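Entry:
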Amino acid sequence: MDYRVAFVVAALLLGTTSVWVLLASRNARPRDKRTDGSRQSAWTQVDVRYAVVALLFLAFDMEMIYMFPWAVAYRQVGIVAFWDMFVFAAILVVGLVYAWKRGAFDL
């Protein structure tokens, strides 16, 4: 038998056995209970404004997805690419100013 095959089989058996033993010992332990017997929910209320900031971050992060290929192909396309990106960035700046005026960043 090739030693590489034996090594892979042994590693798989050792890994599977160790995961099985770890999970079995984890399930055997008593669960942690609070002294007062109450349980707390993992759900908490978060202000909606954090979601607005997250969406604005994603919007400006998506901008980079369009700017990177533009920067790579800028020399081949020329001045038309410059004005296209200028219009794109201007629209994004208008959106940023609008969100700022509406108080989206006031947390």
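The chain has one domain: 3-27+47-101.
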